[in-house]
Amino acid sequence: MAEGLEGALKSLQTAVGDLASLEVQTYTGSIDVQVDGTMADIETVLQNGKSNGTLRLVAVTKMNFDGDAINLVPADKFQDHVRVAHDAALKAGIETRQGLLQLFGDIIGLK
After folding, report:
1. Residue 103 lies inside a defined structural domain of this protein
2. pLDDT at 14
């Protein structure tokens, strides 16, 4: 029983830590990746696969739980389709965190 509770508390601690900030990185470019036939998440594929091509980090937004934010945006023109993709990822991240915080509040009885 203690192991189950300890595991649950560790999972909760990880989840709360993940909610402390939201970071979105947006890249442009092209990449060819050769993998061994098994598909995994994109980060694992990029780390473990043999790849060639170019990727360019064009925008980063990091929002902390307290509202502080750090933004990196292009010095030149921010292409509309790239900005739309970056903004959509931010919006999805914010909405997900709001939902998780609401769920957590409901579980512990906050109104």
Report:
1. yes
2. 62
Indicate whether 76 belongs to any domain.
Answer: yes
Residues spanned by the domain of 48: 17-108
Place of tokens 């601690």: 13
Residue 31 pLDDT grade (very low, low, confident, very high; cuts 50, 70, 90): confident
Q: Are the C-beta atoms of 98 and 63 separated by less than 8 Å?
A: no
Please state the domain count of the chain. 1
Q: Based on the number of CB atoms within 10 Å of its own CB, is 59 exposed (0-12), middle (13-18) or buried (19 or more)?
A: buried
Q: How far apart are CA 25 and CA 57, in angstroms?
A: 7
Alpha helices in the chain (DSSP H): 2-19, 42-48, 80-108
Torsion angle (degrees, nearest 10) of CA 18, 40, 7, 12: 20
